[in-house]
Structures are given as structure tokens and as C-alpha cells.
Amino acid sequence: MYDPCASILNGSVAFVLGTRREIVKLAPLTGLFADAARVIHTGQHYDARLDEVFFTDCGMRRPDVTLGVGGMSRAGQVAAAVANLDTLFAAARPAAVVVQGDTNSALAGALAANAYGIPLVHVEAGLRSHDRRMPEENNRTLIDHVSDLLCAPTRGNVENLVAERLDPQLVELTGNTVVEALRQSLPGPEARAKVLAEVGVQAGRYVLATIHRPENTDDPRVLGAIVAELEAIGAAGRPVLFPVHPRTRAALTRVTGGRLAEGLSACDPLGYREFLALVAECALVVSDSGGIQEETTVLGRPLVLVRRSTERPEALADFACLAEPGPAISLAAFTLLADVESVHARLSVLPSPFGDGRASFRIRDAMFRRVPGLGAR
Q1: Residue 266: left if φ>0, alpha if ψ -120 to 50, beta else—which one?
Q2: From the candidates 41, 45, 122, 212, which is the catalytic residue?
Q3: Nearest in space to 290 (alpha carbons), one of 273, 269, 315, 272
Q4: Are 196 and 276 in contact, with CB atoms under 8 Å apart?
Q5: CATH code, domain carrying 109
Q6: Spatial CA neighbour of 285 closest among 230, 237, 212, 236
Q7: Opening angle at CA 69, ends 65 and 71, nearest 5
Q8: pLDDT digits (tens, 9 = 90+) for 235-247
Q9: Residue 377 lies in a domain
Q10: What pLDDT digit, counting tens, does each position of 320-346 carry?
Q11: At what angle do helices 272-281 and 189-199 cross, to 10 degrees?
């Protein structure tokens, strides 16, 4: 059925997104397109703490269209989003569709754009974990193979795309937009101190933990093992602050009954600016997040990455170590914490492997060169 909202998409640059990380990483790019940008929010993240506050913190325009696919299965989200996008694109044709990363929303945007022959731009192309058990690995690979412009953050990402025999003429080395997004959103020292006081931690003395990936939350034994390791770190004198994703909170209730040992403090999800303040001032991060692998390299903080594999090996060279659920988590954490001031001093002078903070400009310029009609704007 025709949707009157679709008419605003005609000739626009349509940004299809659905999660907080996409909001963060696409905010600088949407700003460069100003009135030509249109934001289509699938609603994959629909809790206000996971999307509304991020639009505000990142200075991104509010969605022009919201699809409401949250709460569905992976296949259900993709199918519902594609069906809704089909209606929109049938009514009005954007000049280009931009998707970011490897979410279900990004895959839906890519498939719908491809079906209509709309030029498709993939921001953060070429990331590979080579682990097909990871749903995101399948999403990002599929997106890359139907894209018309592949914006690769690192040379390793470029090499991945070339190895898969994608046309090198479609590939641009851009850096990652997270660098400029972080720099624009990071609070100053006084604001950071206020955030720390509100959550009750002291600069350099606490560990920040986030766990939300299905591989870590869906199996009670795995989640229980991770919580036990976080509690061990807290018991050793380093308080652990644990902002809990809604999916994790539900799983955590089943595992612990909502009870956590002293030294491990759970709180609700945080806005982007608050979260960056806590990363910038912590001793150590323990997380399974993709984006945090990048943010810690910009902020010079060590990371224990609770994963089987990673699509961002660049972070492992200096900033992060991989630890599967179990004793490896606390072993890695205690090793880093033994002389954490020296670790901070070493990391603070290293450049981030994810770029110089100009990625959005490079992506915009590549789009002007490659997408018919955009260069005249």
C-alpha cells in the first residue's frame, strides 16, 4: 500500500539504520548531506535508552520514517524491514541508499536497494571474522557483495574485499566514522567527572563491562561463567560497573535471580556521551562489543574482548586481547591491571588503527564522484 511518507525519499540520500551503533557512526555523514539526507529507522532497537538518547547525543536528525520491526526474530526483522522498504522505494526512489555495518537493518536496506537498482553504499565494508557462526559475519558479507560503493575503514578490510574478488574500482579506503563521532561526542573533563560521581566510581579505579552478544547471553552456562569472572575482578578490589543491555538483563535474571556479588554493580544502558565518559576514565574495559573495540583505541584504554573471534583484528595488535568465556577473562584482566598506569601511558601515544577522523568526508566525496546526480548538489 502507498505510504505518503515515501514521497520525501524521492531523490534523497536514504540512510537505513536500526541500532544505536548505526546512529553513532552515521551521524557525522548524515550531517554532511544536510537537507538531502533522509533517515529510515527500522526500529531494530526500540527501547528509548538504545535509540532516542543516541539521536540526541550524536546530534543526528530524527528519523523521517520509522518501520517498527523491533522484537522480532532475525529472519522476521529482515523480512519485515525489506517488505516495508519495498513499499517506500516503489513509491519514491532515493538517489542512493547508505547502510552501515552488519546489522539486520543494514542487510534489509541493502537487499531492498539492490532489488530496485538504487546505488548502494556500504559504510564499514570489508570487515571479516571468518567465523560463520556469527550472524553479523553473514550479514556483512552479503551486503558487500551487492554494494556499489564499498567504504573500507582499513587496508586489511580492503584486502578482504579484493580476496573475495570484488571489483577494486568499487572500493574506497576511508577510515572509520567512529573516530569523528567519538571526538564530537566526548564530554570534557568536568562533564566526565560529573558522570563518574553520579554512578559512584573513581577515575582510573574501576572496570567497565558490557555483554550483549547472543553467543554470550543465550546460554545460561556461558553467561554465568562471564558473570563469575566479573565478580572475581570486583572481589579483587577493582569495582566493576556493568551497564546492562535489555536482552542481557532478562538473561541475567534467569541466571542469577537478579543478585550480583559485591563489587559488581549493574545499571541501565547509558547514553553515548555518558558511556564515552566512563570509557575515557576507566582502568580497563571488558566487553563483547564491536564498536568498543574501536572506541578504546581512540581513548587509549585496554580491552579484554569476550569473544570467540573478531572482525577487527587491528585492535588486537596493541589495544585488546581476546578471551573466551571462563578463567581467561580474569587472567587477562589481572595481567593488565597489575601495572595499568603503564598500560595507559603506552596506549595514550598510539594512533588509532581506525583512522584520522576524516572518514565521513572521504565517504561523501566518493559518493559525489560515483553516484550519478549527487555531485551536482
Answers
A1: beta
A2: 212
A3: 315
A4: no
A5: 3.40.50.2000
A6: 230
A7: 145
A8: 999 999 999 877 7
A9: no
A10: 999 999 999 999 999 999 999 999 999
A11: 90
Q: Is 210 helix (H, G, I), strand (E, B) or coil?
A: strand
Note whether 144 and 122 are within 8 A (CB). yes
Total domains present in the chain: 2
| CB crowding 173-190: b at 16 or more within 10 Å, else e | bbbbbbbbbbebbbbeee
Residue 161, SS3 per DSSP: helix
Which among 135, 18, 26 has a CA at the least distance from the CA of 68?
18
- Are residue 49 and residue 67 in the same domain, yes or no? yes
Residue 240 and residue 293 in one domain: yes
CB 303 within 8 A of CB 292: yes
376 found inside a domain: no
Q: C-alpha cell of 256?
A: 542469577
Do 221 and 296 belong together in one domain?
yes
Beta strands in 155-310 (DSSP E): 171-173, 207-210, 240-243, 264-267, 284-287, 303-305
Does pLDDT of 2 surpass 60? no
User: pLDDT tens digits for 258-271?
Assistant: 788 889 999 988 89
At 110-157, the pLDDT tens digits run 999 999 999 999 999 999 999 999 999 999 999 999 999 999 999 999
- Measured CA to CA, the distance from residue 45 to residue 299 in angstroms comes to 26
**Residue 364 neighbours by CB distance under 10 Å:** 18
For the chain, what's the residue count?
377
- 212 given a catalytic annotation: yes
Arithmetic mean of pLDDT over the chain: 92
DSSP state of 372: T
Q: 36: exposed, middle or buried (C-beta count within 10 Å: 0-12, 13-18, 19+)?
A: middle
| Cα–chain center distance at 215 | 17
